[in-house]
Amino acid sequence: MVQAINLKKGMIFSQDGKLIKVLKANHHKPGKGNTVMQMDLRDVKSGAVVHKTMRPTEKVDLVELTKKNAQYLYSEGDTYTFMDTETYDQYEVSADQLGDDVKFLIPNTVVDMDFTDDNKIIGIELPATVELTVKETQPGIKGATVAGGGKPATMETGLVVQVPDFINEGEKLVIGTENGDYKSRANSQAR
């Protein structure tokens, strides 16, 4: 058992005989009243997403999962193919099961695949950051700083990220997978 305040994105718990995956969990303190947890949850089997509010002290049954290291290979339509990096077994996962995680997937991305006790795929856990290339954005502004207002940039996967004004098309960026936010230029360590 775990309290709702300790639930984080990617965790899975059982409730009313269903497996529920946490998509988002926010600690919210309204002006008056008690603190609540606002969460977006997905029913693993049906794929239905619901917004739910829970008391922070409410307890849920966390589900133990088996994790396997896997590499994303390719997609065909709404089916995404991953390969176990140890056994080379291939697994197909639907876009519905992956949800918004598909916007962070490029070929060769290494993820953790989550399996239940009966070897059924629940979903994936992305690395903390991924490197994506800017496909489309407004031209960069010389002399702009990170502290500026920023501008939207569409990444190669279709993800739209708010980036600093000095970023140009074709640049590789480090993007955080938790919130889909800009972290740095991918090649900034070499500068």
UniProtKB/TrEMBL annotation:
For this protein, the record's InterPro entries field holds: Elong-fact-P_C (IPR015365), NA-bd_OB-fold (IPR012340), Rib_uL2_dom2 (IPR014722), Transl_elong_fac_P/YeiP (IPR020599), Transl_elong_KOW-like (IPR013185), Transl_elong_P/YeiP_cen (IPR001059), Transl_elong_P/YeiP_CS (IPR013852), Transl_elongation_fac_P (IPR011768)
Q: Give the Gene Ontology MF terms in alphabetical order.
A: translation elongation factor activity
Q: Where is the Elongation factor P C-terminal domain?
A: 130-185
Instruction: From the Swiss-Prot or TrEMBL record, state where the protein is found.
Output: Cytoplasm
Q: In which pathway does it act?
A: Protein biosynthesis; polypeptide chain elongation
Record key words, sorted: Cytoplasm, Elongation factor, Protein biosynthesis
Single GO biological process annotation from the record: peptide biosynthetic process
Q: Which GO terms describe its cellular component?
A: cytosol
Please, which domain of life does this record's source organism belong to? Bacteria
Report the residue ranges that make up the Translation elongation factor P/YeiP central domain in this protein.
Answer: 67-121
Q: What family does the entry list?
A: Belongs to the elongation factor P family.
Function, in words:
Involved in peptide bond synthesis. Stimulates efficient translation and peptide-bond synthesis on native or reconstituted 70S ribosomes in vitro. Probably functions indirectly by altering the affinity of the ribosome for aminoacyl-tRNA, thus increasing their reactivity as acceptors for peptidyl transferase.
- Record's protein name: Elongation factor P
